[in-house]
Design brief:
This protein is α/β, with parallel strands linked by helices and 495 residues long. It has helices at residues 2-5, 17-20, 22-31, 74-88, 124-139, 151-155, 158-168, 202-207, 257-265, 273-281, 299-309, 322-328, 349-360, 372-378, 381-387, 403-408, 421-429, 443-454, 475-488, and strands spanning 35-41, 65-68, 91-97, 145-148, 172-174, 189-192, 212-215, 236-240, 243-246, 251-253, 314-318, 337-339, 365-371, 393-398, 435-440, 461-467. The protein has three domains: 2-97, Rossmann fold; 124-281, Rossmann fold (3-Layer(aba) Sandwich), CATH 3.40.50; 299-474, 3-Layer(aba) Sandwich (Rossmann fold), CATH 3.40.50. α7 packs parallel to α9. It is globular.
């Protein structure tokens, strides 16, 4: 829900709640999402040995913890935790003894008190120095480029990034986990920069540039394709939410990303050289051929039809796995939402994310792409989607196992027990609410299922099980998997 609304607050029951919430807190911590993780605890006089260590607040997972055992400082503790979540864009944990909420206390007003946060500000002298140095660095370059990263969301700098792109004339790319943050309808958008598995012609332009500005990047083993990016530190300006590093130095702290990008746009000379090079070498991609009657459905044919479904009223959620790569190739219309995560590689995260996103963004129809192995981890969330009458479209891609793991480290553990997935969803439905399910094995069946989802079942939860061959993967997964596997199997580095 924090993905769409900017803030989420799960409040589970006492006991299982803290453990159930760990993936939520890991996701928030890894992705820079504010979340207020609350639960009830035993009444104030209780002493349960070991409980405070059993999945409660932990400084490694939460930016702030509040354990409320009395009302004297409850208001202060709760406000401090909420403020920390909003200011740091990280998860916090609040645990409240179960006998306290019904007891009145003068610090809790009958009427809500407006919540106010002191704004973060840039140091103006440091900001000016950073902008002056960066402008000199970029203005002397021949073919500079801009690349947007996922931390632009935390920094609330997406608009400032677009302003900079409009002003400077550089080609604009997005890191994989920033897809959806950089508008793909921009006149100089060249696609996803992801090393060897980038959008065609994008990596060639980025890596051949003599200067590149990365706004809010995260470079990990997944986003760097096993640390194989052909980037040079001395050519880079790295802009983080409150820090700017130019080449091998200098570094400027206390500089907010949005302030820096906004000011930089007024100092740069227009330079379209890199985009002109891109225009000269660019060749439009082809389209998969239609299947013969009765021919088994191919994944690339599936996504050809998905592309036609998208609009500004859609939001795409891509599960960990081959959906990463297939969804990256979708061209997002203006206003179309997009979410996926690769900072901690959680398998199954997208089922709960679909539930939360749809609940927060009621003006969009969520279209999710989930592998069979991932779905088995968190399938029960579909029951809650039905309860809240959501009209999500879920494409369950059934290829018999964890295909992405096969490409990284193959083994029998990547083969899973097959389910009757539509049957599972129909059992959740149980005749209550609106639900449409379909199994598709051919292109003809897929087209009928899509038409039914967009037509007579547009207000229903639509679950389409797409049965494909176990080896039907994107070429990007094959390349990425080989490189990440090689990086993971390097010999130990003695410390």
């Amino acid at each position: 829900m924090a993905l769409a609304a900017g803030l989420a607050q799960p409040f589970p029951i006492w006991g299982g709640g803290p453990w159930d919430g760990l993936p939520v807190r890991w996701r928030g911590g890894a992705g820079g999402l504010p979340g207020i993780r609350s639960d009830g605890r035993r009444f104030t006089g209780s002493r349960l040995p070991g409980w405070d260590r059993a999945g409660g607040g932990n400084p490694n997972w939460d930016n702030s913890q509040a354990v409320v055992n009395n009302l004297e400082d409850a208001h202060e503790q709760i406000d401090t935790a909420i403020s920390t979540a909003l200011k740091e864009s990280k998860p916090v944990y609040i645990s409240i003894s179960c006998n306290l909420p019904s007891i009145p206390h003068p610090t809790f007003s009958r009427h809500p008190v407006p919540f106010f946060l002191s704004p973060k500000l840039s140091n103006q002298m440091t900001l000016e120095a950073a902008v002056e140095t960066a402008a000199a660095f970029l203005n002397k370059s021949v073919k500079p480029v801009l690349v947007g990263g996922p931390k632009m969301r935390v920094a609330k700098a997406c608009e400032a990034f677009v302003e900079l792109a409009d002003a400077c004339g550089y080609p604009v790319a997005a890191m994989p986990s920033a897809k959806g943050l950089v508008p793909e309808h921009h006149s100089r958008f060249i696609g996803t920069y992801w090393g060897a598995v980038s959008t065609p012609f994008c990596a060639e332009i980025v890596e051949s540039a003599d200067a590149y500005l990365f706004a809010g990047p995260i470079f990990n083993d997944y986003s760097s394709v096993g640390y194989s990016l052909l980037l040079k530190k001395e050519k880079a300006i790295i802009v983080q939410p409150d820090r700017v590093v130019i080449g091998n130095g200098p570094a400027f702290g206390c500089v907010l990303m949005k302030d820096f990008l906004h000011a930089l746009g007024t100092r740069l000379k227009k330079n379209t050289a890199a985009y002109d090079n891109y225009s000269r070498i660019f060749v439009p991609q082809g389209e998969p051929l239609s299947s013969a009657p009765g021919e088994p459905l191919r994944v690339n044919v599936l996504f050809k039809h998905v592309q036609k479904m998208l609009s500004g009223n859609s939001a795409v959620i891509a599960e960990t796995g081959d959906s990463w790569f297939n969804c990256q190739k979708l061209k997002l219309p203006e206003g179309c939402g997009y979410e996926f995560q690769m900072q901690y590689g959680s398998i199954g995260w997208s089922v709960g994310a679909t539930l939360g996103y749809a609940q927060a963004a009621k003006d969009k129809r969520v279209i999710s792409f989930i592998g069979d192995g991932s779905f088995q981890v968190t399938a029960q969330e579909v029951s809650t989607m039905l309860r809240w009458e959501q009209n999500n479209i879920i494409f369950l891609i059934n290829n018999g196992g964890y295909t992405i793991e096969v490409e990284i480290h193959d083994g029998p553990y990547n083969i899973i027990k097959n389910w009757n997935y539509t049957g599972v969803v129909e059992a959740f439905h149980n005749g209550e609410g609106k639900c449409y399910t379909a199994k598709v094995r051919t292109e003809e069946e897929l087209k009928k299922a899509i038409e039914a989802s967009l037509g007579p079942n547009k207000d229903s939860l639509c679950f389409i099980e797409v049965i494909v061959h176990k080896d039907d993967t994107s070429k990007e997964l094959l390349e990425w998997g080989s490189r990440v596997s090689a990086a993971n199997s390097r010999p130990p580095n003695p410390q």
